[in-house]
Amino acid sequence: GGCDELRAEQKHFGGATMRNLILGILVAAVAILGFFAYQSSQQGNALQASLAASTSALTAIEGEKAALEAEVTRLQGLSDSAAAAAADAVAAVETETAATAALNDQLAVLEIDKATLTGQLVALEAENAALVEQLAAAQADAAALAEEAVALQARIDELAAAAAAATPAPAPAEGTTNP
Questions:
Q1: For residue 178, which phi and psi values (nearest 5 degrees)?
Q2: Residue whose C-alpha is closest to residue 113's, from 105, 152, 87, 49
């Protein structure tokens, strides 16, 4: 009967050992699964943190993008304003150039008028010089004629005196006394 007891004990012990072994395997499997679950949870948390960081970075990038778009819009406005100012400046320069050209045309006309008037003045001065010469010649002629007139008057006076000396004195009229 001792062998039966031993076998029963071995069975019992073997059953308990088997149970303990299975239980140990189950505990080890649960521990391993728990460890993997913990690691997965940590990885999930890390991924969530990474995702949150990425989302935050993306939000920051979106904010920077919006700021850059606003800056681009502002710079485009400045560029448009500068282009409009440049176009206005070009138009003003073209207007001023046209006005300058018109003034240059007027100046050219005035220069032509001045040259014409200068020519007329030279002609008038030449006419004036000719008239002065004619006047001098006329004055010389007048002086010569005056001298001639004086000479003729002297000759007339001479001839009159000679004629008076050559003619007999008229008889005194009655009633007058002869001195």
A1: -95, 125
A2: 105
End-to-end CA distance of the chain: 241
CB of 178 closer than 8 Å to CB of 172:
yes
What whole-number distance in Å separates Cα of residue 125 and Cα of residue 121?
6
**Cα distance between residue 49 and residue 57, in whole Å:** 12
Any alpha helices (H) in the chain, and if so which ranges?
A: 2-166
Distance between CA atoms of residues 108 and 48, nearest Å: 86
pLDDT in tens, 91-141: 999 999 999 999 999 999 999 999 999 999 999 999 999 999 999 999 999
Q: How far apart are CA 98 and CA 113, in angstroms?
A: 22
For the chain, the structural domain boundaries read 1-128
Cα–Cα distance between 31 and 82 in angstroms, integer? Answer: 73
| Torsion angle of C-alpha atoms 108, 114, 118, 124, degrees rounded to 10 | 130
Which residues, other chains included, contact 172 with Cβ-Cβ below 8 Å and sequence gap of 6+? 178
Is 138 in contact with 132 (CB distance < 8 Å)? no
